[in-house]
Amino acid sequence: MDGNGRWARRKGLPRTEGHTAGEEALATIVRESAASNVGWLTAFGFSTENWVRPRTEVRHILSLHRKLFGRTEEMRQRNARTRWIGRPFHEKGAKTPIYVQRAIQRAIDDTKSGTGLTVTIAFDYGSRAELLRAVRHAMTQGPVSTDSIARNLYDPTMPPVDLLIRTSGETRISNFLLWQIKGARVHFTERTWPDFTAQEYRTSLTQYSKSHS
Ligand code: IPE
Ligand code: MG
User: Can you tell me which atom of ligand 1 is nearest the CA of 3?
Assistant: First the structure.
């Protein structure tokens, strides 16, 4: 969900306002996903590299995650469930503060009966950290194979990514789902994340469907 800062700067607003608008944009895309029968939506909320940002900005983004994970009623109304991927709370290096841990755990528990859409939030997430851990775990379980690595990812039940959306004019892949995006279609857009609309999302889904029919 890239470009919150640029969105705010263009409007002459503090970066924090961009993150607030970004959280709203995600709520819109979650709604649209449920309406479009998307099975899995995974959003990059906060990376293992983002902790070095200014303290006030980090604090604001964290409180927005509490808000985001708190949208359990909306999730239940849409038959959706919330999940999370990131560095496991009790493992070395993990940085998720306790109040965000609680919000994540509550969101997962309160929405677990949702059978339509799975919304996974990547928080304190980095693909390299995920893969390193998966390989280390796989090595304790016998000969390492692609299957054994896949079984040790943060969420082994997550299907391969069909469509990856990168906003704000960046045409590179960051440290996101590097294992899972093999074969994914990539939709690049100039729009910053807060300006990413349900309409453009629908267009990207249609283009994906056409390329796979
Ligand atoms: C994405 O917006 C939000 C997070 C990474 C948490 P940015 O904060 O990266 O916005 P830009 O890239 O500075 O515009
Ligand atoms: Mg950015």
Answer: 14
